[in-house]
Amino acid sequence: IYTHFTSPIRRYADIIVHRLLAVAIGTDTTYPDLTDKHKLAELCKNLNFRHKMAQYAQRASIAFHTQLFFKNKGEVSEEAYILFVRKNAIVVLIPKYGLEGTVFFEEKARTNERLVFNDEIPSLTIE
């Protein structure tokens, strides 16, 4: 089992680990429910859910503030690197901003051009 210890004030999961260790070595009997496998499983399920929700909130916050940052910049032209080629898109990295994203291609019915994906290389060619 891997765990790390930080300030228990900030991390409820660490408090639970501290309490589990105290119960396991017999120095604390205040939390007997921690020895109940079903209650402990429910507690862990709740901790994992809360952790996942915190991650989603953090990602949403980053996306929101990134959008605010670029909102008033207008059109931006920066160097980007292609990380991965797909059949209908490329994944690019813009180092200056630390952004990675997918650029999807849409074939227009009114043009004679089409995208040809080569799975062996992989590459996309406009013909």
From TrEMBL:
Annotated ranges, domain RNB: 2-24
Example GO molecular function: 3'-5'-RNA exonuclease activity
Domain Exosome complex exonuclease RRP44 S1: 77-125
Pfam families (UniProt xref): RNB, Rrp44_S1
Organism domain of life: Eukaryota
Family matches, as SUPFAM superfamilies: Nucleic acid-binding proteins (SSF50249)
Protein name: Uncharacterized protein
